[in-house]
C-alpha cells in the first residue's frame, strides 16, 4: 500500500459546455494537510473543477481521484465536505439544529463543540439561520460543511459577499481547521485572500493553470496586474 500525500488529484481532466472549454487538460494535485487556493476571474473554471471533485459533474476526459477514490465514493464516505456557491437551510431552523442534522449524516462526525469553536459559531447556536448576517451565515455553512470531519474541505468562493472584518474572521477559522491536519481547497478571485489564507495558490484562467506556488512566488512570477484579471481575451 502506498502512502498518498495528495488529498485530490486531477490527471488530464477536461470539461466542456457546448463550445466552451470550462476546464482544459488540467493536471493538479491538492496537497494533504494544506490550504490550497484556486485563484481566477469569473469563468476561469473554478466551480467546474470543484464540481468534478465533488462528483457533481463528470469529466469529458481524464481522471479525478479523491483520497484514491472516485469523487462520488469519497463524498459518500464523508471524506469530503463542501461549501458550494448555492445551498440554503430551512428558514426557521436554529443553528444548533442545522449542525446536529449535518452531524447525523456522517459515521464519525466532528463534535458540536469543535465545530462551534473552529467556525466561530458558539454564540450563534440558538439563533435562527434566517436572522443571521451574511458573514455569520457563511460561518454556519462552514461548520455545516465540516460536520463530517472531512479530510478535505472544499469551499467555492466562500467570502464573496462579506466585508473585510467578516472575511478575516472566516479565514481565521479555516486556518485553525487546517492546523488540525486537514486539507482545504477554496476558490477566490482575490489575490490578497489567496495570499493570506492559503499555503499554495493555483492561478487559473480559461480552464487552465497559469501558475502555481506560494503567495510570494505568484506575486513575483505572475504579478499583480495579470492576477487582477481580465475576464475575456487570451491569457
Ligand atoms: P468560475 O467558477 O471560475 O467562475 P465556471 O467553472 O463557473 O468558472 O465556468 C467556466 C466556464 O464554463 C464559463 O465560461 C461558464 O460560462 C461555463 N459554464 C459553467 N457551467 C456551465 C453550465 N452548466 N452550462 C454552460 N456553461 C457553463
Ligand atoms: Mg464559480
Write a concise synopsis of the structure shown.
This is ABC transporter ATP-binding protein. With 235 residues, the protein is of the alpha/beta class. The chain has helices spanning 46-53, 71-76, 95-104, 112-119, 134-145, 164-178, 191-197, 215-221, 224-227; strands at 6-17, 20-31, 35-39, 61-66, 80-83, 152-156, 183-188, 200-205, 208-213.
List keywords for this structure.
globular, alpha/beta, binds adenosine-5'-diphosphate, antibiotic resistance, three-stranded antiparallel β-sheet, binds magnesium ion, 235 residues, six-stranded mixed β-sheet, ATP binding, ATP-binding, nucleotide-binding, 9 strands, 26% strand, transport, disordered C terminus, single chain, 9 helices
Amino acid at each position: 500500500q502506498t502512502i498518498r500525500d495528495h488529498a485530490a488529484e486531477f490527471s488530464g481532466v477536461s470539461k466542456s459546455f457546448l463550445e466552451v472549454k470550462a476546464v482544459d487538460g488540467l493536471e493538479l494535485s491538492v496537497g494533504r494537510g494544506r490550504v490550497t487556493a484556486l485563484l481566477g476571474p469569473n469563468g476561469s473554471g473554478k466551480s467546474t473543477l470543484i464540481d468534478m471533485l465533488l462528483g457533481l459533474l463528470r469529466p469529458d476526459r481524464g481522471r479525478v481521484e479523491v483520497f484514491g477514490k472516485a469523487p462520488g465514493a469519497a463524498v459518500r464516505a464523508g471524506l469530503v465536505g463542501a461549501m458550494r456557491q448555492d445551498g440554503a437551510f430551512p428558514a426557521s431552523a436554529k443553528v444548533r439544529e442545522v449542525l446536529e442534522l449535518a452531524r447525523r449524516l456522517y459515521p464519525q462526525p466532528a463534535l458540536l463543540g469543535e465545530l462551534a469553536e473552529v467556525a466561530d459559531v458558539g454564540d450563534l447556536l440558538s439563533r435562527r439561520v434566517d436572522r443571521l448576517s451574511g458573514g455569520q451565515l457563511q460561518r454556519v455553512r462552514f461548520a455545516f460543511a465540516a460536520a463530517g470531519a472531512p479530510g478535505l474541505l472544499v469551499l467555492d468562493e466562500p467570502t464573496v459577499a462579506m466585508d473585510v472584518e467578516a472575511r478575516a474572521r472566516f479565514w481565521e477559522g479555516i486556518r485553525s481547521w487546517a492546523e488540525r491536519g486537514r486539507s482545504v481547497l477554496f476558490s477566490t478571485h482575490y489575490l490578497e485572500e489567496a495570499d493570506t489564507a492559503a499555503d499554495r495558490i493555483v492561478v487559473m484562467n480559461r480552464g487552465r493553470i497559469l501558475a502555481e506556488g506560494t503567495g510570494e512566488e505568484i506575486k513575483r512570477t505572475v504579478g499583480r496586474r495579470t492576477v487582477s484579471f481580465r475576464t475575456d481575451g487570451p491569457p
